[in-house]
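Model it.
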Amino acid sequence: MLYPIYVHKEDGSAYGATFPDIPGCFSGADDIQALPRAAQEAVEAHFSVDEDPIPSASTPDAWATHPEYQDGGFWMLVDIDLSQVRSRAVRLNISLPENLVQRIDATARQRGQSRSAFLATAAEHEMANAE
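Modeled.
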C-alpha cells in the first residue's frame, strides 16, 4: 500500500521521514534510495509494539496545507508491504484452479516472492483499490 511520507534533510544530515498517517512513526536514511526500505522497517517496528489498528493510507494532498509539513521538505510515496506488519502467519487451506496456481507461481517466481507473499500482496492491492 502506498503511504505518503514527508521527507526533510538539513545540510550534513541524513534524510528524515515522517508518516502523517501513522502518528509517532519516523524513519531516516543516509541516502534517498535507502529511504523506502527504512520506511518499511520503521512501520514494522512501530506496529510490533503498538496494538492500534493499522490506518489506511492517505495522499500527500490530504496533508499539503497542514502546518507541520510546511518547512521546505518534500513528499514521497512509499510502498509499505502490510503483509510484513504484524506478520504472524495463519495457515489457510484454499482451492484454486490448477492453471491459476501455475500462473501465480510463475509470476511470484519472476518477482522473487513466495506464493503466499504474492497472494497477500494481491489481496492487499485489491482491498486498497476497493476503498
